[in-house]
Amino acid sequence: MRDNKPLWVPSQGSIEASPMYAFMQACNRDHRLAMASYPDLHAWSVSEREAFWTSVWDFCEVKGERGPRTLVNRDVMLAARFFPDATLNFAENLLSRHGGDDAIIFRGEDKVSDRWSWDRLRDLVSRLQQALRGRGIGPGDRIAAMMPNIPETVAFMLAAASIGAIWSSCSPDFGEQGVLDRFGQIEPKLFVACDAYWYGGKLQDVGPKVASVTKRLGCPAVVVHYAGNASAVAGDVPGAATLDDFIAPVSAGPLEFTRLPFSHPLYILFSSGTTGVPKCIVHSAGGTLLQHLKEHRLHCGLQAGDRLFYFTTCGWMMWNWLVSGLAAGVTICLYDGSPFAPDGNVLFDYAQDERFTVFGTSAKYIDAVRKSGLTPRASHDLSSLRLMTSTGSPLSPEGFTFVYEGIKEDLQLASISGGTDIVSCFVLGNPMQPVWRGEIQGPGLGLAMDVWDDEGKSVRQEKGELVCTKAFPAMPIMFWNDPEGAKYRAAYFERFDNVWCHGDFAEWTEHGGIVIHGRSDATLNPGGVRIGTAEIYNQVEQMEEVDEALCIGQDWEDDVRVVLFLRLAAGVTLTDDLVKAVKTRIRTGASPRHVPAKIIAVADIPRTKSGKIVELAVREVVHGRPVKNKEALANPEALDLYEGLAELRV
Fold first, then answer.
1. pLDDT at 332 (0 to 100)
2. Which candidate among 116, 122, 518, 526 keeps its CA 20 to 30 Å from the CA of 396?
3. How confident is the model at residue 12 (pLDDT cuts 50, 70, 90)?
C-alpha cells in the first residue's frame, strides 16, 4: 500500500534559503535558463555536464586553476576526463579557514573530549607536512593508517594530501591479516597507528599488532597516542617514532600546498574483501573534492559554521566524506567507540551538547535505537538538527516512520546510497523536495542515474539494476596493481557496454524517488523471479522477536529456495508459532514469493567492519565453498554457525 502523503515537506522559505536554490538561480542567470524545480536542475546537470560542473567549481569557490577545458571524451565513460588542464590541492581547499573557531570537535567512548581550532589544526598539519618531506615522502607515495576516528588522523591525512601523497586508512579493530591484505598491496612508505583504543567499555591493546604489521610492511611507523602508551608501543617496533618525536625537529610555519593535476590520486579505498583480497580503489583529488562539495553544499545545504557529524570509522568511506566537510567551512564532529556505550543516548547527548546541524548514521543504528525503546525526541533538545542521513544498508519504511515519531518531527531525513566505489552517493537527499516513507529522495546532481532491466531498457516502478549512463568526476581513476584496467572494467562495465553498473537492485517510485532492494549479487531467484533481500528484512526486522536477519538463496532441486536466518531477541526461541508468524508477515507485507522455504535461528550474523551483513559469505559456507577472506569480517567466527546445517540437507 502506497502512502498518500509525505513524511516531510520543505517550506517555500526553507527552499529559497537553501544553497541549492541559490545555485539554481545562479545557473539560471549565468546560462539564461528558467529552471524552477529540482527535476529541472537535475535534467540540466546531466544534459549539460560541462556547464554544470564548471558552475559547481565556481559556486563552491574551489581553490586552484580550472584551466580551459571541462570534459574531454565525454561520451566514453572509461576515457572521459574532467578538468584535464586544472591544478589544485585537496588539503588547501579543506584548510581555507583560520582562527580560533572550532574546526573539529571530538568525543571518545572513554569520556575524553577535545576541541581543535582551525589554527591548531593548521599548525599540526604544517609540522606533519615538514616531517613527511624530511622523510623523503612526496607526490604519489602512499601513507597507510590504522587509526581511530580522532583529530590527529584528520591532520595526518591533510598533511599527506598537502604534498601529493596518497592516503589510505582502516580502523584499529581490523585483524592483522585484514590490515596486511589491504596495505600490503599498496607498499606504503609510512605506517601510522595508534597505541590503543576503547570499544564497548574495554581498552583494546594494539601494540603487538602494530609491531607485526610494521615488520611485514617493511616501512617506518609513527605511533599516535590515544588510549595507551605510545612510547612503549613505539619502543617495541624497530625504527618507529611516537608522533611527538616525529614532529619534534620542526616547528609550525606557513602551510605549503603542492598543486597537482585534477586527476592526481588522493585516496586508496578498499572493497569489503569478503569474496577475495580487497580491491584497491584509487580516487582522484579533484573528483573527490568536487563531488563532496556538491553533496555537502548543495544536497546537505551546509554553510560555514554548521556542525556535521557522521558515525563512522576510518575504515569506511563515510570517514572520507565527513572530513571533506571542512571544505564547506563547517565544524566536523568526530566520535570514536561504540554508539551504545554506556547506552543508546550517547550520540544524542553529543548532538544536543554540540548542536549538530547534520546527524549521519547507519540504518542499522536507527533500527537499534528504535528497538531499544529510546525516544530522543522526548529526552533531548535536537532543535538545531536540520538533516539526518542514513546509509550502509537500505532504511526500512518503519525506520523512516521512527525517525519522525521518535527522533524529530520537523527534519529532513535523507537515506543515501553510493559507496566506496565512488567515495560518495549516486542517490541521496535534496532540500527542495518532500520525503516519502521508504524512499530515497532522488539522484545526485550531475549523475545520469537510471534503473535498467536485464535487456538494458530503462524501467519505471519496476525493479532492475542501478546504472549510470554518463561519466562523472568521482569515478575511480584506476584500481591499484591493475595496469591494463581489467579488474576495473570487470567491476563496473561488463554488464552493459559503456555504462556503469553499480551492483544495486533498485526501483524508481511514482514520486521520482528511489528504493534500493539490496545488492544485485545477493538477490534471490526462486522460480526465476528476482527478489531483493531488503524486502524481506523490512518485514521481519520490525518484529519484536527478531533482532536481525540474513537471507540467502540455496541451490535446491534445479532451482533456488529462500533461506532466512534469524538472530532472535534475548529470551526468544524459534517455535512453530513464531515461524508461522514470520511467514505470515512476509507473505502479507511483501508477497507469497518472498516467503522463505526454511527459517533457521542462529546465535550471530556475520558482518563487515562497517556493519554490513555478508550474505555472499554465508551463501558460500552453506554451499560448502571456502570463504576467501574472513579477515574482512568483524566477527568471522560467526560463519561457523552456518556450516553443515542439518536443516538445509532436507
1. 98
2. 526
3. very high
Strands 64-65 and 87-88: antiparallel
Spatial contact of 358 and 306, defined as CB atoms under 8 Å apart? yes
Share the mean pLDDT of the chain.
Answer: 94
Place of cell 526500512: 396
**Rg of the chain over CA atoms, in angstroms?**
24
Handedness of CA 180, 186, 187, 188 (dihedral sign): negative
Question: 1 pLDDT exceeds 50?
Answer: no
pLDDT at 223 > cutoff 50: yes
Average of per-residue pLDDT across 86-103 = 97
Q: Report the C-alpha gap between 166 and 177 in whole angstroms.
A: 22
Q: How far apart are CA 540 and CA 572, in angstroms?
A: 14
**C-alpha span between 300 and 592 (Å, rounded):** 39
Point out the least confidently predicted range of 38-47, 266-275, 276-285. 266-275
First to last CA, the chain: 36
With cell 546504472, the residue in question is: 467
Give the mean model confidence (pLDDT) for residues 32-51: 98
C-alpha 105 chain-centroid distance: 20
Cα separation, 434 vs 429, whole angstroms: 9
Task: Name the pLDDT band for 274 (thresholds 50, 70, 90).
Answer: low
Among left, alpha and beta (phi > 0; psi -120 to 50; other), residue 624 is left
Cell numbers representing residue 541 in the block: 526486522
User: The C-alpha cell of 274 is what?
Assistant: 569478503
Q: In whole angstroms, how far apart are CA 35 and each of 14, 16, 21, 232, 430? A: 18, 13, 10, 62, 16
Phi, psi of 126 (to 5 degrees): -60, -45
pTM of the predicted protein model: 0.90
Residues 451/506, Cβ–Cβ less than 8 Å: yes
Please check whether residue 516 is in contact with residue 534, taking contact to mean a CB–CB distance below 8 angstroms. Answer: yes
**Per-residue pLDDT tens for 568-586?**
999 999 999 999 999 999 9
DSSP 110-178: TS-EEEEEHHHHHHHHHHHHHHHHHTT--TT-EEEEE--SSHHHHHHHHHHHHTT-EEEEE-TTS-HHH
C-alpha span between 629 and 644 (Å, rounded): 20
What DSSP line would sit under 296-336, residue for residue? Answer: IIIIS---TT-EEEE---TTSHHHHHHHGGGGGTPEEEEEE
- The arithmetic mean of pLDDT across residues 125-145, rounded, is 98
| Cross-sheet strand order for the sheet of 449-452 | 449-452, 464-468, 500-508, 514-519
Nearest alpha carbon to residue 441 among 453, 451, 450, 432: 432
Name the residue type at position 605: I
Contacts of 225 (CB under 8 A, 6+ apart): 194, 195, 242, 243, 244
Dihedral in degrees, nearest 10, Cα atoms 19, 20, 22, 24: 160
The grid coordinates listed for 376 are 530522543
Closest CA to 123 of 95, 86, 149, 84: 95
- For the chain, give the longest Cα–Cα distance: 71
